[in-house]
Amino acid sequence: DINWDSYYQEKLPNKISLPGYVFNETKLPSRINVFKSLESQFQGNSNAIEVLIKDHEDMDNENEEELEFNDRSELLVKYVAPENEIEQTLVYMWQDFFNMDKIGVLDDFFKLGGNSLKGVTMLKLIMKTFSVQINIKDFYIKANIKKLATEIDLAMKIQKMSEDKKSMNIVKI
User: Fold this and answer.
1) 137 exposed, middle or buried (CB, 10 Å; 0-12, 13-18, 19+)?
2) Which of 42, 52, 72, 91 is 20 to 30 A (C-alpha) from 158?
3) DSSP string, 110-131
4) Does one domain contain both 68 and 82?
5) Has residue 4 been placed in a domain?
6) What is the model's pTM?
7) Cβ distance 114 to 121 under 8 Å?
8) Is 22 within the bounds of a domain?
9) How many domains would you assign to the chain?
10) Structural domain boundaries, residue 63
């Protein structure tokens, strides 16, 4: 039998504290140009390098066209452009957030790659940008730009009415 309580008394536990800051997001390239990185290995044989690089660049151009098409093909909804300033601002925010070029107002946050942690982060960005309070449950239920824009517009109108009412009360006194 081993007395585990006395066994660990001699050893001091190593404590590692969590950092008090948020880690910086580092964006890595989606593809690495292998042929350019191999260029240094082909010393002196420039013809072989040029052929390899040209073939790879031709392949890249074909893949980019496919990527643009496939980027939206995984989504079940067709692209719908923003119709107002709030929707446009949200589209820009989501495009930057998800590092995507073409996000429509009917695209679902979670189908684009969002999760609960990203949802909280996006909600904070929305609240900071528009200076409104949005319930996290509403954000998850209304997980596309069209519905969120309506919610934000409503919150902004309620906030303005509340401010107008306060200013009217101040005048009465």
Assistant:
1) exposed
2) 91
3) TTTT--HHHHHHHHHHHHHHHT
4) no
5) no
6) 0.55
7) no
8) no
9) 2
10) 30-74
